[in-house]
Design goal:
This protein is 0% helix and 53% strand. By secondary structure, the protein is an all-beta fold. Strands 2, 4, 5, 6, 9, 10 and 11 form a seven-stranded mixed sheet that branches. A four-stranded antiparallel sheet has the order 1-3-8-7, with no helix packed on it. The relative contact order is 0.32.
Length: 115
């Protein structure tokens, strides 16, 4: 299983970013995918999840209405569109898949929100 996040960057408050997570090594379209984040000195926080076919999504209250999770099963990729970014959104963002064999994480991508 391999998960590779990309798209992190430095952005001003109020700005937008789209993160991508390219997956391989497992039947992508059969599994729900998740985004988490970890800020300095904090634990890893759930952000969003999407069902295997993409028809069901779930969000943390802290990002509801600003972030959108989506997936392209033809490209084995899950996305996180982040709008109206705040300084509190600054963190390393990770994608995760849970399989019967365990939890698999990518290496993360850094999002910095600063003026």
């Amino acid at each position: 299983v391999q998960l590779v996040e990309s798209g992190g960057d430095l952005v001003q408050p109020g700005g937008s970013l789209r993160l991508s997570c390219a997956a391989s090594g497992f039947p992508f379209s059969s599994y729900a995918l998740n985004w988490y984040r970890q800020a300095p000195g904090a634990g890893r926080e759930f952000i969003a999840s999407i069902s295997s076919a993409g028809g069901s999504t779930n969000y943390a209250d802290s990002v509801k209405g600003r972030f959108t999770i989506s997936r392209d099963n033809g490209k084995n990729t899950v996305y996180l569109q982040m709008n109206w970014l705040k300084p509190d959104d600054m963190a390393v963002y990770y994608c995760m898949v849970r399989r019967t064999s365990g939890y698999y994480w990518g290496q993360g991508t850094q999002v910095t929100v600063s003026s």
